[in-house]
From TrEMBL, chains A, B:
It catalyses: N(2)-formyl-N(1)-(5-phospho-beta-D-ribosyl)glycinamide + L-glutamine + ATP + H2O = 2-formamido-N(1)-(5-O-phospho-beta-D-ribosyl)acetamidine + L-glutamate + ADP + phosphate + H(+). Belongs to the PurS family. The lineage of its organism: Bacteria, Bacillati, Bacillota, Bacilli, Bacillales. One of its GO terms (molecular function) is ATP binding. This is Phosphoribosylformylglycinamidine synthase subunit PurS. Part of the FGAM synthase complex composed of 1 PurL, 1 PurQ and 2 PurS subunits. It comes from Paenibacillus roseus. One of its GO terms (cellular component) is cytoplasm. The gene is purS.
């Protein structure tokens, strides 16, 4: 089973990396770029076929390691 | 218009960050985790309504700044 995890910074938390990317794009002439938010994207292969078990385990992985839930949100998708 | 950009490391390029995450998950007892790949996820607000123009500009942004096309692939989605 393949899992895709998206980790994003919460809406009300400052994103300095996003601001830096926005500034760089403006400097390069892409003036139409407004707010930029940068997050993480993970692809995991899971050696399991039980979907609900996989969801439980993935939630635990996100809570414990993949996301810092104080400042980040996460969501995931399962395939296969 | 809102754009979502996914930047991922090419399949045949080593991903040390992914290996580190996989190792950490194994150490924490998530033995079912196989290969892990880590990428970037960006959300951009674009002040434009012309979809094909936005696609051209986003491709330029990805080629010039957001992705290192030697070792990374990118794809994007446009909404609104």
């Amino acid at each position: 089973m393949k899992a895709t995890v998206y980790v994003t910074i919460k809406q009300n938390v400052l994103d300095p990396q996003g601001s830096a990317v926005q500034g760089a794009l403006h400097t390069m002439g892409f003036a139409e770029v407004g707010k930029v938010r940068v997050g993480k994207y993970l692809e995991l292969e899971l050696d399991t076929t039980d979907r609900s078990e996989a969801e439980t385990r993935l939630t635990a992985m996100c809570e414990k390691l993949l996301a810092n839930t104080v400042i980040e949100d996460y969501r995931f998708e399962l395939e296969g």
